[in-house]
Amino acid sequence: MSDQDRLNRFLSTDPRDVGCDEAMAVLHIYVDLTVDGVDASERYPGVAAHLLACGPCADDFAGLLAAVAGD
Amino acid sequence: MECARPTERELDAESADWLRRLSAGGRLHRHEAEGELHARLVRIALAEVRRRSAGTPVGGPELDDLAHQAAADAMLAILAKLAGFRGESRFMTWAYRFVMLEVSSKLGRHYWRDPPVALDAGQWERLPDRLGIDPQQHAESAAILAEVRRVVDDELTAHQRRVFTAIVVDQIPLDALAARLGLQRNAIYKVVFDARRKIRRALAANGYLDEPGLERR
Prior knowledge:
By secondary structure, chain A is mainly alpha-helical.
């Protein structure tokens, strides 16, 4: 990957990205769909885009998924 | 930014049972259910802070205390919002979400007890490493980084500049910055999102980036 590609990736933003508030509002639904084997990103593409871009929300998603899976 | 809309779902038996017990008229039965729920929240909070322990300066007994506080605050939030649970997910998934939010928020606040980097440090010399770029080897990369710095200095608002520098350049955790500035996570995220778009537009307009599109899909 060239330096320009790295910068491009670093500066990229996805217009589908719903932001933290919207993503957190449906995180429990998103996690249950994932646990049930449903493609949650298809139903909530804006949430999927956000989880790819936002480290803290992705961490909450990973934690909730681990909590539910280990329950 | 788009909106995420929840979907309806039939309430499962276990979720219905939790709702019934936590809303029960008898104080003794409700108290018993609350005790069970609290124990589960504590277990989940302890597991979660341990899962995140590598990424936080908080450790030892303080981390366990934080987990117990997170579980207690999650419990309060759950009971306060119980009537708002619409069965769009399993009850316990909905409840555990409050634990995650509390753990994130509390870790953000605790960050400032012994921060590895001060607010407004502005460690621009570390940005190439953070991006995996070696400006010593490529004059073009050095020029692009200099332009990023110029755009940040000249074209971002003071608030955007401060937040962008803290998050991207100094790598202060987003929840820590939110706690320090008294803002919500989403407010910080949106500032960085907008700053990235603004910087990218400027770089494209000045010929530093080839792609004409401002955003990827």
